[in-house]
Design a protein that fits this description.
single chain, alpha+beta, Lipocalin
């Protein structure tokens, strides 16, 4: 009899515990979830300020971690690899140095090693218009060759634009599913040939401490204030369109980190009409910045 009663008490206790855990998890989920009502509210507020939201918003804004990266160690091996990539075996480039950066030049080609990567330019027009698929293959081959420089970061096609044989493909670094916007490769092709390339690379060392983040609608409110500051009230003019919202990591200063290391923090990135470059809002501080 006592055993039966004890089992009943245990079952009731477990049921109460499960209900409490379920309630706690539900509250935690709701705490970091963006509701339909909040989306409707921010959409209406933006519309009143001349901004048309045409992008899907992240529904979750759970705490995120900082990231630590290392300044890319540009070794002689890496420099030799890039030289072999851009200059044929029978081409002997001439070396010069300005502002601490080495530049190799041969006829219309130039390759410059910068603090965090490189810049390449070929003045040859590519010999014809070329089609998009040929340009894409040429850019992909260049990205594959340069990807070894972003040790620990996978270069993923992020955007492309152009027409009539002149195309630009942009690759961004991805580390453990997080887009490292500050690590990138930009390839321009003309006539199916790579005529310009720029790479900027960091080596990720891992994630740091976790912090709460501002919700996407709060970041959008900051964006609306930034746009009003930039463009004014725009009464009677077509609305400014927000066409995309992404979460990326941007490199910050190296305060408190070891020499040669930099920190990166999560940012909401907004693609906005009237602007060639996106606007970023820090997910930790809700402060806007231009890259």
């Amino acid at each position: 009899m006592l055993a039966k009663r004890a089992n009943t008490i245990i079952i009731v206790f477990l049921a109460i515990l499960n209900a409490a855990l379920f309630s706690f998890n539900l509250n935690e989920w709701n705490r970091y979830s963006l509701s339909d009502a909040r989306i409707a509210d921010i959409t209406a507020l933006l519309a009143r300020n001349g901004v048309d939201l045409r992008a899907d918003l992240p529904r979750r804004f759970a705490p995120l971690k900082t990231m630590t990266l290392e300044l890319y160690p540009f070794t002689a091996e890496a420099s030799d690899g890039l030289t072999a990539l851009f200059f044929a075996p029978d081409e002997t480039p001439v070396s010069s140095t300005a502002f601490g950066w080495e530049t190799l030049e041969y006829k219309g080609k130039s390759l410059t090693f910068t603090a965090q990567g490189f810049r390449f330019e070929d003045l040859d027009d590519g010999g014809g218009p070329g089609d998009r698929d040929t340009a894409f293959r040429a850019a992909g081959a260049a990205a594959m060759s340069a990807s070894a420089l972003g040790d620990g970061v996978t270069l993923t096609l992020y955007s492309e634009k152009g027409s009539d044989g002149d195309y630009t493909f942009e690759y961004r670094g991805v580390y453990r599913s997080a887009t490292v916007y500050s690590s990138f490769l930009r390839v321009r092709t003309r006539g199916g040939k790579v005529v310009a390339e720029r790479g900027n690379f960091y080596v990720p060392k891992g994630f740091g401490g976790e912090r709460d983040v501002y919700a996407p609608d709060e970041a959008l409110y900051t964006l609306s204030r930034e746009l009003r500051h930039m463009f004014g009230a725009r009464a009677g003019e077509p609305p400014i369109i927000v066409s995309a919202v992404d979460l990326v990591y941007l490199v910050e200063d190296n305060g408190g980190l070891a020499a040669g290391e930099v920190g990166a923090e999560p940012y909401y990135m907004f693609t906005v009409s009237l602007l060639d470059e996106p606007i970023f809002v820090n997910a930790f501080t809700n402060e806007a910045k231009r890259a």
